[in-house]
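User: Working on a comparison across species. This one is AzlC family ABC transporter permease from Aquipuribacter nitratireducens. Can you predict its structure so I can line it up against the others?
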Amino acid sequence: MSGAPATEVEEAAAVASARRDGFGLGLLGVYGVSFGAVAVASGLSPLQAVVLSVVGFTGGSQFALAGVAAAGGAAVTGVASAWLLGVRNSLYAVRLTDVLPDRAPARTAAAHLVIDETTALAVRHEPHGRAAARAAFWTTGLVLFATWNLTTAVGAFGVQALGDPATLGLDAAAPAAFLALLWPALRRRRTAVLAVLAAAVAAVTSALAPAGIPVLAGGAVALLGLSPRWRA
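Assistant: Here's the predicted structure for AzlC family ABC transporter permease from Aquipuribacter nitratireducens:
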């Protein structure tokens, strides 16, 4: 049979599929318009909101900082809350060790894109090979970064025209997509039990600890349950 070997054809198809999925998921960055509006309504200037999206690029942390600002909290409190929520991305980076680039410059750039969505889609495409997982990671990250920052600017500079950002409902898009990505894994009994346990720990901790700690506590439970030692 002429043409490329079957394995190469399959790999090319897997990479193409990963890129399509990444592009579609990356478009969810349009809910950055909600952050831009919320940030300005909380007291940040439009320019500050835009810069925060560029350098902070992790929605949960950004909304946490804006929430503290809206409540009149100190800057150090807002930064601490945002940092605690962002620490979860370091756990994702450990999971993506084999997906991220090997060389330092590219690895540093990739680190800025390690967030919920890029991790979820990369892990979902891992069974199809490293190339597919990398394609999913980079496509999701770059498209999401572009749409998030563009729409943050739209929301920040057009906040008066948008009205109450809470009525947009765009903030529900990302969690819904993330759940959809995880759903196949939740069909396995062990994973489902771990998910419920991690969620319960996070819910209980949220009543006792500052923002960020519940996420880390839930993540720690999941990591412990998935470790080779506890699988035995």
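For your comparison, note: The chain has two domains: 6-168, 187-232.

User: Helpful, thanks.
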